[in-house]
Amino acid sequence: MINRSDTTRTLAAYISGLALLLFAGGCTPQIIVTATPAAPTATGTSVTEDVVATPPPPLMTQVPPAGEIPPAGAKAAIPLTLWTVEAVSSLAEGEAGRVFDEGLSAFEVAYPDVSVSVIVKNASGKGSVLDYLRTASQAAPSVLPDVAVLNTVDLTQVARAGIIVPLDDLVSPFLADDLLPAARAAGTVDGQLVGIPFEMDVEHLIYNTNKVASPPVDWTDVISANTSYVFPAKGKNGLVNDAFLIQYLALGGRLQDEEGRPTLDEQPLRAVLDYYRQGMEAGVIPPTVLDVGDPDDVWPDYVSAQVGMTHVNTHRFLTDRAVLRTTQFADIPTRDGTPLTIGRGRALVIVTRDPARQMMALRFIEWLMAPDNNATWNRTTAHLPTRYAVFDLIGNDDPYWPFLQHQLEIAVPPPAFPGYDQIGRVLQQAVVEVLSDEATPEEATAAAIAAVTP
Fold it and tell me: Looking at the domain covering 4-200+345-412, what would its CATH class be?
């Protein structure tokens, strides 16, 4: 066991000197833009209450405690290449871009034997980090980066293709053992740690206290509630939403059998579909859930008090929580009250096979993951940190932070195995048929299992 208080202790004098160096003449990392920046999007909320402005976050200047990184050498600067996305770069909107830029500059001041070159790729699809890693690993491996930022759902593909480096024998136990369970699970493929998640988000319940006296814990509480319960049921990219998977997985439902083949379990599937049907018959789950593809789609209706209970993404809630006056948070209610959610995020991975460059890449990752640095980044971007030590730093007396830590202790990764797309589409079809009253839960279950089972 590590002493978390030790992992958060820094030398104030050293940091002050480092900040002075940064302002006096810190170097600026190279930014090569290969993706067109996306236009800013509106929050979609109609609330106009004043929100107290928070001061700019501090510079990311913490150096990890002794033992977490190898000592800096005195050799000539080694160029380190990072492939990332716009949201994790100097081009990020708002304060995030400034914090990223100043953080890299501070790292180069702290470690003058390393220079960081940042190349920005698309967030998904053609031209994404994943796309370039797969193509370059086959056609031009010499152009591959040393470090990359990846969506955690993409780790399985690149790990099984041998594109990224296993980290179990590289990363410090001070960091690995301090990762919250959801982060550790998200960064693990086939029993090996292959990525270090640095930010995550989960879905949880919020409810209007003017409409709901106490949070629902199980399905009985939901169905007997005298208010509407709205969650994503439209599907996303044709696949079933996390809202359904949370209920199915909480019942022990499987998506793969012992040999790794796609499978569905009849009883959990039928139970969730029947829950949806009962909720609709009770008038609690409205048919409009089929128009909701993402928790953000419900936000305007919730804020205007048209919805009593809904799901929210933690990024949205952390961003706009201050405008809500009569809202509380809770676990997503499941059949037996078993808490479960799904964690998604971004991770840092090492691509280079050169041992010396791997050590430099590891130094860079562990510096970014130092508690003060990770806290600064996640405060700025309104995502969840992934280390216990960071929660110890930013929790204060706000009960929401212990709740968030709990969410990252019960969260599971989204399915990302080959063949899941077929299952996700089959499950979404079953949801649509039941909520559209085109099939009974029994009929939809039988059709789904028949479509998946050879």
Answer: alpha beta
Portions of the chain given CATH number 3.40.190.10: 4-200+345-412, 201-342+415-452
Does 137 score more than 80 pLDDT?
A: yes
CA distance 98 to 110: 18
Structure confidence by residue, pLDDT tens digits, 367-419: 999 999 999 999 999 999 999 999 999 877 899 999 999 999 999 999 999 99
CATH level 2 (architecture), domain 201-342+415-452: 3-Layer(aba) Sandwich (3.40)
Q: What angle do CA 164, 166, 171 make, to 5 degrees?
A: 120
pTM recorded for the entire structure: 0.84
- Are residues 127 and 69 in contact, defined by beta-carbon separation less than 8 angstroms? no
User: Shortest CA distance to 255 belongs to which of 447, 417, 432?
Assistant: 417
Residues 288-322: tens digit of each pLDDT:
999 999 999 999 999 999 999 999 999 999 999 98
Query: Are 24 and 112 spatial neighbours (Cβ–Cβ below 8 Å)?
Result: no
